[in-house]
């Protein structure tokens, strides 16, 4: 996506510059002579704004065509500093940012894209807002979550008709999570889920975006009264309920948000793996047993209890226990829940 944006920006710049090159380049005149003539014209105090724009554009185009990138950067940035009131400063700085992108100096490009948004009045280049082009590039190259939050928010507020706000609400929520801003993350996830295409949108790098958002929002809205203070407490309660064939207690201990029951080869994010059933039908008339210890595959965040005797089709069930990851609520974060069931022997 970032490459597309950069090339599109380059196409705008080169397309405009090419007009002047075709109209005025003299093959018999050396590059340095042509540039000096243009500099001399630019020094004229009474030069009309439109003519000044044309001359600067011509000088910049010649430097760009000659790949004199350092000279081009010095020329453009010096002009902007010396002429803070120039209407076209956003355009000159956009060209500067583009050159830094060509040089793979992304931090410097980010500085100039950001500077345009914060200090320059917006302009249109071939029908495209310069501020919008800057925000698109900034979203792609910035690595700072605080900055990215600002860019996502601004592009949603100012240019909703030019972007897929559904995707941006999700990406904004992720950035809030990265910053530990959980209340704002939940709000953005809720905004994401409220969009008509939230359940069908394909977001690059986020194949389970809808499920992730739905689980977090649903968990936040739930009473969370099925969680246990520790893994030991959860394991003891589940084992006791099985021993006593107390299906009501087992039903109570099951997570009430996205509890799954599936084979090892299924994806827990698959809607077919989400189950809401009572344990009663599987306990009546069956002899249920469990291992004395949790499976060796268990770790500090997940645990598996091997049980068997549930039915004649798939006798072995692994009960899956998980540490709750919910930093927004310190009283819940770090507790344990019975999150699902895996059918069959562990693969």
Mind telling me the C-alpha Rg?
Answer: 31 Å
Tally of helical segments: 14
Which percent range fits the helix content?
40-55%
Uncertain spans: 1-25
**Main β-sheet, in a few words?**
5 strands, mixed
What is the number of beta strands? 7
Class by SSE composition:
alpha+beta
Q: Which percent band covers the strand fraction? A: 5-15%
Overall pLDDT score: 89
> Order of strands across the widest beta sheet?
3-7-6-5-4
Helix and strand run = HHHHHHEEHHHHHHHEHEEEE
Terminal residue distance = 38 Å
Dominant shape: rod-shaped
What does this molecule look like?
- The chain has 14 helices and seven strands.
- The protein has helices at 2-24, 31-42, 49-65, 69-82, 89-102, 106-119, 130-141, 145-158, 165-178, 182-193, 209-221, 231-243, 247-253, 280-283; strands at residues 124-125, 128-129, 260-263, 289-290, 302-308, 316-323, 336-343.
- Strand 5 (302-308) and strand 6 form a beta hairpin.
Attribute tags:
disordered N terminus, 14 helices, two-stranded antiparallel sheet, single chain, 347 residues
């Amino acid at each position: 996506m970032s490459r597309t944006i950069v090339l599109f920006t380059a196409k705008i710049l080169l397309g405009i510059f090419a007009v002047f090159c075709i109209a005025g380049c003299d093959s018999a005149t050396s590059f340095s002579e042509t540039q000096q003539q243009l500099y001399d014209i630019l020094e004229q105090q009474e030069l009309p704004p439109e003519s000044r724009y044309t001359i600067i554009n011509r000088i910049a185009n010649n430097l760009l065509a000659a790949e004199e990138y350092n000279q081009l950067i010095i020329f453009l940035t010096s002009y902007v500093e010396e002429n803070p009131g120039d209407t076209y400063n956003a355009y000159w700085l956009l060209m500067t940012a583009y050159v830094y992108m060509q040089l793979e100096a992304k931090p410097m490009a980010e500085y100039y894209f950001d500077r345009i948004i914060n200090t320059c009045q917006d302009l249109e280049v071939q029908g495209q807002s310069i501020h919008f082009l800057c925000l698109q590039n900034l979203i792609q190259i910035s690595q700072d979550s605080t900055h990215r939050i600002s860019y996502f928010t601004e592009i949603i507020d100012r240019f909703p008709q030019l972007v897929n706000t559904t995707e941006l609400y999700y990406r904004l929520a992720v950035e809030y999570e990265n910053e530990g801003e959980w209340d704002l993350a939940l709000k953005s996830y809720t905004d994401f889920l409220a969009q008509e295409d939230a359940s069908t949108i394909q977001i690059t790098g986020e194949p389970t975006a809808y499920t992730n958002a739905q689980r977090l929002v649903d968990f936040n809205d739930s009473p969370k009264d099925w969680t246990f203070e520790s893994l030991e407490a959860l394991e003891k309660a589940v084992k006791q309920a099985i021993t006593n064939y107390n299906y009501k207690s087992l039903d109570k201990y099951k997570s009430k948000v996205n509890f799954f029951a599936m084979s090892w080869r299924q994806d827990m994010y698959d809607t077919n793996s989400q189950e809401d059933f009572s344990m009663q039908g599987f306990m009546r008339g069956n002899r249920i047993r469990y291992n004395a210890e949790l499976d060796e595959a268990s770790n500090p965040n997940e645990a598996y209890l091997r049980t068997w005797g549930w039915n004649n089709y798939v006798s072995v069930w692994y009960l899956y226990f998980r540490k709750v990851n919910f930093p927004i609520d310190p009283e819940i974060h770090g507790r344990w829940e019975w999150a699902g069931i895996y059918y069959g022997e562990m693969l």
